[in-house]
């Protein structure tokens, strides 16, 4: 595959942020997500930048098996890497207690599910892997990178009264209404290449400091700058952009770098 900077698709959301910085497109409307994909040639992974000014819906994604039983190509597992926060930035991941399916349905209808989420205060560098079936929500004041299976499939359980469709039957059916049991951590700050995630669908590494990128993972990778400028095939890319290429073809424009590298398994 030819090395390339992936096209950006801006997605407006009621919970998004207005007036994004220039390197994120400089949009004045409420942008919630920037997607990096090739619609004419779907990629195995979908990378996104997310920006929140309000809470996202309480939602859940199916596994491959559950999705295929519904006539869909695949389920959706994802990883969040927090890059910036404002105020009381929190992520709701899993529940504080085990619920039955009927209790989950009742809590979703009444809105009690919001207070049953395990809301975790987060800071830049924190990351969480979200297995299929995990009930979750993103709070206000969060900027993060999301790396996921390339499937646009979300079942909303609760949406704070917004006039959007809920998906209670499917959402309850695919949920694991229990405390979070995935992998999480804080990105290392020492120089080098650090493995954050090794899942059945993708790996994620974070490269920090002065690192020889010519000796990093082989094959096409999704290269996502968190800080600094990089060059590939004579083009400059920076935070707010994603390149798909072998890591060895990237050249940092300064001696130090902060780069996420995702690769499909």
From TrEMBL:
Protein name in UniProt: Mannose-6-phosphate isomerase, type 1
| The keyword Metal-binding is annotated on this UniProt entry | yes
List the coiled-coil residues.
none
Tell me the PANTHER family matching this sequence. Answer: FRUCTOKINASE, TRANSCRIPTIONAL REPRESSOR MPRA
Keywords assigned by UniProt, alphabetized = Isomerase, Metal-binding, Zinc
Domain of life according to the entry: Bacteria
Keyword Metal-binding appears in the UniProt entry:
yes
Molecular function as annotated in GO: isomerase activity; metal ion binding
